[in-house]
Amino acid sequence: MLQSLEIELTKTKKQQPPAEQLGFGNYYTDHMFIMNYEDGKGWNTPRIVPYQPIVLDPAAKVFHYGQTIFEGLKAYKTDDGRVLLFRPHKNIQRMNRSNERLSVPELIIDDAIEALKQLLAVDQNWIPTAPGTSLYIRPFIIATQPQLGVAPSTHYQFIIIMSPVGAYYTEGVNPVKIFVESEYVRSVKGGVGEAKTAGNYAAGLKAQEIAKEKGYSQVLWLDGVHRKYIEEVGSMNVFFKINGIVHTPALNGSILDGVTRNSIIQLLNHWNITVEERPITIEELYEANRKGELEEAFGTGTAAVISPIGELNWQGEVLVINEGRTGELSKKLYDTLTGIQMGKIADPFGWMVEATGIRV
Ligand SMILES: *Cc1c(COP(=O)(O)O)cnc(C)c1O
């Protein structure tokens, strides 16, 4: 594979923003990776070029039928200057599952990883090192065939952009307030909820806007059939600690299979803390709280890593978790996972993939 991926490089350099100004997804590195796809020809012409606008035909299928996939992962720079990617194969494998669902051609996994590593090598001086910061990587695929017919595109582009980021939530790792959505739904089994595809997020904006107006930072989605089972939050999977046992909704075909979710389950198993993956109802959560058994709640995702949940509002009934403070387990999970990611503590799972020294 490596030989097949002869990446052409055009270099540039621009000024970097100060670390305290980063926020999330506001700045982009010097370069981006692009590769084309054409039916009959496959993926071709891999190149690293200066970060720049892309020119597309207004009839490109991505604009009309939403045939597009994205991923999100992070890179970190260790104190001794190594560049580490967190479980990149998981993201590219998931991208291929999303591709399959949206009738987008599969990527060759090793080539996509090679593209990630080479782009990182070129822009490694963009990886911020202050606590809580990292380099967020956004690979995505768009359907570019200019043809107004509902059919899979014959042409695509695979693009990788990278953004130095600070903390995801302006509140930092403090607990967030979440609105439990009873009217709108995010997805149903058989739909595209399992795929990281744009439409899922556009469909969620309305509910998110309403929640924001009410003073809540995110929406907790319930299942689309019964409006009863807990699914996930915005772009995070959710966990609840009830009576010493950690519960998370089982992957049911409408929830995204988060890499962070999977890592948290592995960490908890490693610590001999029981994790139950099963359908969880919202009533059950309120009942556990009434009995004083709901100890902690948190969301998991690449962007925020761990986001403690301090309050839920379901049909006007407010539930305060752990007095609105960050729970001990949430804190320990955050510290451990970010410690592994930054190369500060041992990685017993072999999650980190080193990306330096490929090409500069
Ligand atoms: C990306 C995403 C997640 C989290 O997945 P990670 O791989 O942990 O980043 C959860 N839910 C949705 C809807 C997402 O888009």
Structure report:
With 360 residues, the chain is α+β, with helices and mostly antiparallel strands. The strands form two sheets. Strands 1, 2, 3, 4, 5, 6, 7, 8 and 18 form a nine-stranded mixed sheet that branches. Strands 9, 10, 11, 12, 13, 14, 15, 16 and 17 form a nine-stranded mixed sheet that branches. Pyridoxal-5'-phosphate binds next to helix 6 and strand 15.
List the helices and strands and how they pair.
Layout: E1 8-9, E2 31-38, E3 42-50, H1 61-65, E4 68-70, E5 73-77, E6 83-86, H2 88-101, H3 109-122, E7 134-143, E8 155-165, E9 176-181, H4 198-202, H5 205-213, E10 218-222, E11 230-233, E12 237-242, E13 245-249, H6 259-270, E14 275-278, H7 282-290, E15 294-301, E16 305-314, E17 317-320, H8 328-341, E18 352-354
Parallel strand pairs: 1-3, 9-10, 9-16, 13-14
Antiparallel strand pairs: 2-3, 2-8, 4-7, 5-6, 5-7, 6-18, 7-8, 10-11, 12-13, 12-15, 15-16, 16-17
Bound molecules: pyridoxal-5'-phosphate (PLP).
Residues 72, 196, 232, 235-237, 256, 258-261, 300-302 line the site of pyridoxal-5'-phosphate (PLP).
CATH architecture type of the largest domain:
2-Layer Sandwich
Measured by DSSP, the beta-strand proportion falls in: 25-35%
Give the distinct bound molecules.
pyridoxal-5'-phosphate
Which sequence of SSEs, written as H and E, runs from N to C? EEEHEEEHHEEEHHEEEEHEHEEEHE
Which regions are unreliable across 5 or more consecutive residues at pLDDT < 50? none
- CATH topology (fold) name of the largest domain: D-amino Acid Aminotransferase, Chain A, domain 1
Give the tally of β-strands. 18
CATH homologous superfamily of the largest domain, by name?
Aminotransferase class 4, branched-chain amino acid transferase, N-terminal domain
SS-based structural class? Answer: alpha+beta
So what's the overall shape? globular
Rg (CA only)? 21 Å
Number of helix segments?
8
In percent, how helical is the residue content?
Answer: 10-25%
Number of domains: 2
Mean pLDDT: 94
Largest sheet: 9 strands, mixed
Terminal-residue CA separation: 20 Å
CATH first level of the largest domain? Alpha Beta
